[in-house]
């Protein structure tokens, strides 16, 4: 046989050989892997090289996003931190850089003793190739789905160094927002017996009636084996157990086992109770393999007359769209970062998240399960037709089925996932090819899970096209729930045309929240509303802006780098629209927002909010009038300043009353009054004195001694009375001692570019954020933050 090898193949082979040799020269001692558990975290001490095989390698810890790292050649004008003014990604990619990079890790193993060893990547952005000892295991283009390779046939004998090499290629504009680059989620070695359970092929479903629940476990088992299944409660007490029938077939066969639970505790957003399903694979009275899967018993029903019922209770989705990045950390999916994001959203009234527009990390869903956060699990932003020149559309034809199946198999046992979404604003959605793609995607989901409804987010057609909104009826009819992006004005009209349609506002804007939410509360066939967005994110720079300019634009350019459309900023601080949401969702009786002094030529974008804050400190504008807006559902608002009643006004239909107030030191107080002018709520704002001190507050004072443990430290500039000074945008210096390094430092400012990885930050509206990363050792971590003429802030966090 004659084998033809191209010059390109020879070059790639030579490059790989060079990579292997170079990595080996730079590598630390190969990690000794102990096969004493089923899953072994494989995140530590990877070698990393950017762009070229000739570059020096350095050691990194996963999760890792190279696009958030400082670029060489810093100059304060065109290269600032990770931002490059002439980046081909421009404002959509937050002026960062992608490119190609290499990772490598060497390790030794004991004897496998008949076991199989796999490697699982939870997420690599994007287009990755993986080798083991020079053997190419495969290519995985999509940056958001997990993938696994069997290493066993290519491993060297026990004690010999094995080497994993990963090439990551994030070239060109691959998305409409910041994606990050690299192995940004966890990596695991998976140690399996020769006959084992496949976690991706296990489906756990539940049903319940007034007194009992049934839990069904469906999975494939090898021949001559059976299952022993136990259901344990939160105290590890066995509630039910059952054995499957033995598999007498000559090959692997599906098995379904049912357990009955009397008086079950149900999983719900308010009480997210979870059992544990323990699945043991048995052969000849010997346990070959065992898995424990957290299990929530809950029931979802949707109906155009009753809306969404969870366990029979009518539920309105108070939703947030969020992208996958973690602010100052870039896309790196640290467990604590994923957890904190969901906690913040829950604290601010949200009970649902749409994972716009891709599958989230496993930890994200684990936290949603534990906290009772409902999820629309979304697969794709594009199908066949591109939105950006190098996006997933080039891979969709050959990979959409496997990527979607990967998402559903991984996520179907999470009780928090209540809806699948197959796409967002797909350009070809009403074309014949779009219909075929939708049917294919729906069929893929239903082959794996029939317990959840399916949606997709549709927006209106662009002006100037011949397509009309009604032309989408046939495509929407394929879905269980019609997703409406920014189409709240069509809810009632469409219901009159299409009687059985169930709708959800998959994307709305904060300025239009009242109008959209009135529809949700008043019309049962609309099951919820998802704002764009719950938190600020990197990329799509400035789409949520309020600026002072003669002309406006959809996005803003350098130095804007984040979208600025979130209820919370990238550090988790509350923004003005979040206070307004508290009124709409009846979480607060009254809120005050004060517009900045400058109102000339203010341009507020569709996703933006006027330039106002809950602030009464404007030292440069004393005795000048300010516009004060008070939001409340009460009938009247009485406004006082320094004990003097300024006016009482009736609340408008937009739930606000507007006052003009002269700036004076002291306090303004807004009183919410009912129809009888009796008080039902009060809110005040106080002016501050000059910045005097720095105060540090940690989210937790104790963290685990683990290289992936994080501690978030909020930085506040206070006056002498202990109030945050909202106009204090001050440069501060950071010192860290003890077993930790800086993972990120910065503020929520959307247009003040800076490094997130230096021991300094400039506060924004008196606040900043420091993120510490433990180095794997225990001890006291001490942090000091200092600034000119300010009392130094100090805090200690223990790692143990």
UniProtKB/TrEMBL annotation:
InterPro entries in the cross-refs: Beta-gal/glucu_dom_sf, DUF4982, Galactose-bd-like_sf, GH, GH2_Domain-Containing, Glyco_hydro2_dom5, Glyco_hydro_2, Glyco_hydro_2_AS
Annotated ranges, domain DUF4982: 624-677
GO biological process, one term: carbohydrate metabolic process
One Pfam family it belongs to: Glyco_hydro_2_C
Domain Glycoside hydrolase family 2 catalytic, first and last residues per copy: 307-459
Signal peptide residue numbers: 1-24
Gene Ontology molecular-function annotations: hydrolase activity, hydrolyzing O-glycosyl compounds
Domain Glycoside hydrolase family: 694-796
Superkingdom, taxonomy of origin: Bacteria
SUPFAM superfamilies to which the protein is assigned, alphabetical: (Trans)glycosidases, beta-Galactosidase/glucuronidase domain, Galactose-binding domain-like
Location of the Glycoside hydrolase family 2 immunoglobulin-like beta-sandwich domain: 199-298
Annotated Glycosyl hydrolases family 2 sugar binding domain residues: 35-193
Protein keywords: Glycosidase, Hydrolase, Signal
The family this protein is said to belong to: Belongs to the glycosyl hydrolase 2 family.
The protein, known as: Beta-galactosidase
Organism whose genome encodes this protein: Chitinophaga sancti
């Amino acid at each position: 046989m004659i084998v033809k090898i191209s010059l390109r193949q020879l070059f790639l082979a030579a490059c790989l050989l060079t990579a292997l040799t170079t990595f080996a020269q730079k590598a630390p001692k190969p990690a000794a892997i102990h096969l004493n558990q089923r899953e072994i975290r494989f995140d530590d001490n990877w070698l990393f090289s950017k762009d070229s095989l000739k570059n020096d390698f350095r050691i990194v810890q996963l999760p890792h996003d190279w696009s958030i790292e400082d670029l060489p050649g810093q100059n304060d004008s065109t290269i600032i931190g990770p931002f490059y003014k002439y980046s081909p990604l421009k404002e959509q990619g937050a002026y960062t850089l992608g490119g190609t990079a290499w990772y490598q890790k060497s390790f030794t193993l004991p004897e496998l003793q008949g076991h199989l060893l796999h490697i699982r990547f939870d997420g690599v952005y994007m287009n990755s190739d993986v080798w083991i000892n020079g053997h190419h295991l495969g290519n995985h283009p999509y940056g958001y789905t997990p993938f696994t390779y069997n290493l066993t046939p290519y491993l060297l004998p026990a004690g010999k160094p094995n080497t994993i090499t990963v090439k990551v290629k994030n070239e060109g504009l691959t998305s409409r927002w910041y994606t990050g680059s690299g192995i940004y989620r966890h990596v695991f070695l998976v140690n399996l017996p020769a006959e084992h359970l496949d976690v991706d092929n296990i489906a756990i479903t539940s049903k319940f009636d007034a007194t009992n629940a049934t839990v069904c476990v469906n999975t494939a088992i090898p021949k001559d084996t059976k299952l022993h299944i136990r259901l344990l409660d939160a105290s590890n007490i066995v509630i039910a157990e059952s054995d499957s029938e033995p598999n007498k077939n000559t090959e692997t066969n599906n098995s379904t086992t049912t357990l009955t639970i009397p008086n079950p505790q149900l999983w719900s957003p308010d009480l997210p109770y979870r059992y544990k399903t323990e699945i043991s694979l048995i052969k000849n009275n010997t346990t070959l393999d065992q898995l424990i899967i957290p299990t929530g018993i809950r029931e979802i029903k949707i109906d155009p007359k009753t809306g969404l019922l969870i366990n029979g209770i009518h539920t309105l989705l108070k939703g947030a769209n969020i992208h996958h990045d973690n602010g100052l950390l870039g896309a790196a999916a640290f467990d604590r970062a994923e957890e904190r994001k969901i906690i913040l959203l829950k604290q601010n009234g949200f009970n649902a998240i749409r994972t716009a527009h891709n599958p989230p990390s496993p930890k994200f869903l684990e936290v949603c399960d534990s906290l009772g956060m409902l999820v629309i699990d979304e697969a794709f932003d594009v199908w066949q037709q591109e939105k950006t020149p190098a996006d997933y559309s080039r891979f969709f034809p050959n990979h959409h089925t496997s990527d979607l199946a990967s998402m559903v198999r991984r996520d179907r046992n999470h009780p928090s996932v209540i809806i699948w979404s197959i796409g967002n604003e797909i350009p070809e959605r009403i074309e014949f090819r779009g219909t075929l793609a939708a049917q294919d995607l729906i069929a893929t989901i239903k082959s794996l899970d029939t317990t959840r409804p399916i949606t997709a987010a549709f927006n209106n057609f662009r002006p100037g096209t011949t397509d009309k909104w009604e032309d989408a009826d046939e495509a929407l009819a394929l879905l269980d729930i019609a997703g409406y992006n920014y189409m709240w004005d069509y809810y009632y009209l469409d219901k009159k045309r299409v009687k059985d349609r169930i709708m959800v506002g998959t994307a709305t804007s904060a300025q239009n929240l009242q109008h959209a939410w009135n529809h949700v509360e008043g019309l049962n066939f609309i099951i919820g509303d998802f704002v764009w967005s719950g938190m600020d994110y990197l990329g799509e720079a400035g789409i949520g802006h309020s600026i002072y300019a003669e002309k406006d634009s959809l996005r803003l350019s350098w130095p804007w780098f984040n979208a600025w459309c979130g209820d919370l900023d990238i550090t988790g601080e509350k923004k003005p629209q979040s206070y307004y949401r508290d009124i709409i969702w009846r979480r607060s009786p009254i809120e005050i927002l004060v517009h900045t002094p400058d109102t000339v030529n203010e341009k507020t974008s569709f996703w933006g909010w006027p330039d106002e804050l809950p602030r009464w400190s404007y030292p440069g504008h004393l005795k000048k009038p300010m516009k004060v807006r008070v939001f409340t559902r009460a009938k009247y608002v009485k406004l006082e300043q320094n004990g003097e009643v300024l006016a009482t006004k009736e609340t408008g239909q937009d739930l606000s009353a507007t006052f003009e107030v002269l700036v004076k030191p002291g306090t303004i107080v807004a009183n919410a009054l009912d129809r009888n002018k009796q008080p039902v709520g009060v809110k005040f704002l106080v002016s501050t004195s000059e910045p005097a001190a720095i105060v540090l507050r940690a989210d937790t004072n104790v963290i685990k001694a683990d290289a992936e443990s994080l501690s978030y430290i909020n930085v506040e500039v206070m006056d002498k009375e202990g109030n945050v000074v909202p106009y204090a945008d001050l440069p501060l210096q950071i010192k860290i001692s003890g077993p930790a390094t800086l993972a990120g430092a910065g503020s929520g400012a959307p247009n003040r570019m800076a490094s997130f990885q230096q021991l300094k930050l400039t506060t924004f509206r008196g606040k900043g954020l420091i993120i510490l990363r433990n180095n794997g050792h225990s001890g006291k971590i001490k942090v000091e933050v200092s600034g000119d003429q300010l009392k130094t802030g100090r805090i200690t966090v223990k790692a143990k």
